[in-house]
TrEMBL record:
This is Bifunctional ligase/repressor BirA. GO terms for cellular component: cytoplasm. PROSITE patterns: BPL_LPL_CATALYTIC (PS51733). Residues 71-262 form the BPL/LPL catalytic domain. It comes from Paenisporosarcina quisquiliarum. Belongs to the biotin--protein ligase family.
Length: 325
């Protein structure tokens, strides 16, 4: 089966708004026989698409499976570049190495890798990221901004704002950002972002932005040890979210904010990040590999570095840490 034809048929079915698609028309458009088109339709049915065949009219889609296949995301895309190349896997160890590989082979700005399940999802600081099958968004985005590597940490904050805005748009719930880029709802983590780089001394070749969003999990979908600190959008709102629509919305904001950042620098994004932050103005503990700093989170610098004032009046710049509030 030709995957491009199957993708195009799926896209047409998803965007036909209940209008029948003529088998003959599809056959003519793709230069195939009607039997070949019918085989593609059967294959889609096996994947969970419910397709009615109306005599003399054609195929009508009655329902589609909850999946992150390219055609499902594509129907919601509003972007110029982001999400125009989609690599989809049902199951993989992690989307990050696949995205690294694609970036090295020249994948364009805004290409994504997305999957239903990760069997070895990676978190920050070499932690494990639980990625339950079909319940969340496990995605890596390849971004190629023309910036020096020193500016890359700011990008993590840009991504956090984009995902927060997307969750607000789609699920009507406001997440808060815990520095640098954990998204919390009601104090529990619903999104994590992992930023990895391909760069030389003075130029970023690609940022591989790993985004994990807990979308439709129930509490028992999380391992027991994180059940008290993790949450999902569904657990908070009681509503199931169309993950493909949320992916498209994340890409929408990510493209806008990436362009804003490249054109005007971090300053406008810093203001947005601060408006969603739940870290600033609080007493926090910053846990680093070799030390801990406790004090008042004053703000972030124009480089995205967290400033903490300890009780002796000293101000410390925190570049990377786990934050306890
Ligand atoms: C964190 O520790 O908070 C960051 C979690 C990042 C998880 C995402 S899921 C998609 C991508 N692939 C991975 O293996 N990790 C990131």
């Amino acid at each position: 089966m030709n995957p491009t034809v199957k993708y195009e048929i799926t896209k047409r079915l998803l965007t036909a708004n209940g209008q029948p698609l003529s088998g003959q028309q599809l056959a003519d458009d793709f230069g195939l026989s009607r039997t070949a088109i019918w085989k593609h339709i059967k294959e889609l049915e096996e994947e969970g698409y419910e397709i009615e065949t109306i005599k003399k009219k054609g195929y009508v889609l009655s329902s589609s499976p909850d999946s992150l296949q390219a055609a499902k995301i594509n129907q919601y895309l509003t972007t110029k570049r982001f999400g125009h190349t989609i690599h989809y896997e049902v199951s993989c160890p992690s989307t990050q190495p696949i995205a690294h590989q694609m970036a090295q082979s020249g994948a364009p700005d805004g290409s994504i890798v997305v999957c239903e399940e990760q069997t070895a999802g990676k978190g920050r600081m070499a932690r494990v990221w639980t990625s339950t099958q079909g319940k969340g968004i496990w995605m890596s985005v390849i971004i190629r901004p023309e910036i020096p590597p020193t500016k890359a940490p700011q990008f993590t904050l840009v991504a956090a704002v984009a995902v927060t805005r997307a969750i607000e748009d789609i699920a009507d719930v406001r997440a808060e950002i815990k520095w640098p880029n954990d998204l919390l709802i009601n104090g529990k983590k619903c999104t994590g972002i992992l930023t990895e780089l391909q760069a030389d001394m003075d130029r970023v070749h690609a940022i591989i932005l790993g985004i994990g969003v807990n979308v439709n999990q129930q509490v028992t979908d999380f391992p027991e040890e994180i059940q008290s600190i993790a949450t999902s959008i569904q657990m908070v709102t009681g509503k199931t979210v169309d993950r493909a629509e949320l992916v498209a919305r994340i890409l929408h904001h990510l493209e806008i904010y990436t362009d804003l950042y490249v054109m005007h620098g971090f300053e406008p994004l810093k203001i947005l990040w601060e408006s969603y932050s739940c870290t600033l103005g609080k007493r926090i503990k910053a846990i680093m590999i070799h030390q801990q700093i406790e004090g008042l989170a004053l703000g972030i610098t124009s480089e995205g570095i967290l400033q903490v004032k300890t009780d002796d009046g000293q101000i410390h710049g925190i570049y990377s840490a786990d934050i306890e509030i």
